[in-house]
Design a protein that fits this description.
Elements (H helix, E strand, L loop, with lengths): L6 E9 L3 E5 L5 E5 L12 E8 L5 E4 L10 E9 L3 E5 L6 E4 L12 E9 L4 E5 L18 E9 L3 E6 L3 E6 L12 E9 L5 E4 L10 H12 L3 E2 L7 H8 L3 H13 L3 E4 L2 E4 L1
Parallel strand pairs: 13-15
Antiparallel strand pairs: 1-2, 1-4, 2-3, 4-5, 6-7, 6-9, 7-8, 9-10, 11-12, 11-14, 12-13, 14-15, 16-18, 17-18
Helix pairs in contact: 1-3
């Protein structure tokens, strides 16, 4: 089967005047226009192509790499707005259509917008939507606390910056955790800092690899999260107090908080340890 909006590895079936006809080994065929035909080829060779609809709504193949494919998010430039909707530059000859109903805010020519690409079932056309939250779901999470995740910066809020987590979930980076300039569309690595009871995800940009933190440091982080971000212990605390609350020696405790401090996970004050 030949899939619209995706990369397909197809067999070269025959060479014709308009270009090469490619097949999927079943009954599907699609034209690769002459402008994309490789300099050397043989009938029977396989070639990877992207398939979409041309201006006459016919499936067509290209060796060009689009900026977005079906089921993905990307920051795209709006080339023009007509009475039907907006047309976005996605790196191919035919622009990607974004109907008015799929615009979170009215798009303007020259503007850049984070969109999701999907196959519209009614029109059977690839379209874009800037209502990206509609394509995210936190009901059943596929991530857990301290997991390293891929992020796409989505849109700002009063609390911080919303991010798309692993192209599946919605998360939030709080303002206090943003230590560098980030913009909508940026692709970053992050950590699931906390999973809230309603499955909302708090994301951190600072530490990559919580899983690599020594067990004692991870234990202290868990205690901090469970106690509102504060533990009344520090490097001068009584060893018995440390052992009673954290079940570890003072030596292990000092080594763990030293690691967390260097990685900017905590602040050490006179009254104890504070989660940053």
């Amino acid at each position: 089967m030949i899939y619209l909006g995706e990369y397909n590895t197809l067999e070269i079936l025959r060479d014709t005047e308009p270009g090469l006809f490619l097949g999927d080994g079943e009954d599907g065929e699609v034209l690769l226009p002459n402008r994309y035909v490789p300099k050397t080829f043989e009938i029977g060779d396989e070639i990877e192509v992207f398939v979409y609809l041309d201006n006459e709504e016919r499936p067509v193949a290209t060796t060009d790499k689009p900026y977005i494919k079906k089921g993905d998010f990307a920051l795209l430039r709006c080339n023009q707005v007509t009475e039907y909707g907006a047309f976005l530059d996605w790196g191919l000859v035919k622009e990607l259509f974004c109907p008015f109903r799929e615009q979170a805010f009215n798009m303007k020519a020259g503007g850049w917008y984070l969109v999701y690409c999907y196959l519209d079932e009614e029109s059977e056309r690839l379209v874009a939507s800037s209502k990206t939250n509609h394509f995210l779901d936190n009901k059943e999470l596929t991530v857990a606390q301290f997991d390293e995740v891929d992020l796409i910066v989505s849109h700002p809020s009063d609390l911080g910056m919303n991010v798309i987590v692993n192209k599946t979930h919605l998360g939030l980076v709080f303002n206090d955790d943003i230590y560098k300039d980030i913009s909508v569309g940026d692709r970053l690595k992050g950590i699931v800092k906390k999973v809230r009871p309603d499955n909302k995800l708090d994301i951190s940009l600072n530490q990559i690899g919580y899983r690599n933190i020594e067990p004692n440091a991870e234990h202290i982080l868990n205690e901090l999260h469970d106690n509102g971000g504060f533990i009344p212990l520090h490097d001068k605390s009584n060893p018995e107090d440390i052992k009673r609350q954290l079940q570890m020696s003072k030596k292990s405790f000092k080594k763990a908080i030293g690691t967390l401090y260097k990685e900017r996970q905590i602040e050490i004050k006179d009254d104890g340890i504070h989660l940053k």
